[in-house]
Amino acid sequence: LALASVAHICRDVQYGWLIRNTHANGASMFFFCLYLHIGRGLYYNSYLQKKTWYVGILLLFLVMATAFVGYVLPWGQMSFWGATVITNLLSAIPYIGMTLVEWVWGGFSVNNATLTRFFTFHFLL
């Protein structure tokens, strides 16, 4: 289902191929700039400002989560395994891990509802 929608965007939407390529390459450039920014912070000892550094780490994790759910979307069935493995890491969190996994997946297993949920998370984050 997800791969078919990507093919639809590329073939049937006017300049859809350009939108898809710009989105993918822009995201890669964004991460490159993000890593440069982190490197600059390390070089200038910005990690000594604890509150600022922790906010930056939180933002980095949110950006990585957004990238992950966006990456899973176009691959559909092929990424069900990857989504299962990575989101299962949440189950290692004591007490709330299994509840988090079920909440992220939208049930007990990864399926089409999971992709719909990831699509929503990708745009909300």
From TrEMBL:
The keyword rRNA processing does not apply. Keywords: Electron transport, Heme, Iron, Membrane, Metal-binding, Mitochondrion, Mitochondrion inner membrane, Respiratory chain, Transmembrane, Transmembrane helix, Transport, Ubiquinone. Gene3D superfamilies: Cytochrome Bc1 Complex, Chain C. It is a multi-pass membrane protein. InterPro entries: Cyt_b/b6_N, Cytb/b6-like_sf, Cytochrome_b_N_euk/bac, Di-haem_cyt_TM. Pfam families: Cytochrome_B. GO terms for cellular component: mitochondrial inner membrane. GO terms for biological process: mitochondrial electron transport, ubiquinol to cytochrome c. It is found in: Mitochondrion inner membrane. The chain crosses the membrane at residues 27-45, 52-73, 79-101. CDD domains: Cytochrome_b_N. GO terms for molecular function: metal ion binding; oxidoreductase activity; quinol-cytochrome-c reductase activity. Its main location: mitochondrion. Residues 1-125 form the Cytochrome b/b6 N-terminal region profile domain. Component of the ubiquinol-cytochrome c reductase complex (complex III or cytochrome b-c1 complex) that is part of the mitochondrial respiratory chain. The b-c1 complex mediates electron transfer from ubiquinol to cytochrome c. Contributes to the generation of a proton gradient across the mitochondrial membrane that is then used for ATP synthesis. The cytochrome bc1 complex contains 3 respiratory subunits (MT-CYB, CYC1 and UQCRFS1), 2 core proteins (UQCRC1 and UQCRC2) and probably 6 low-molecular weight proteins. This is Cytochrome b.
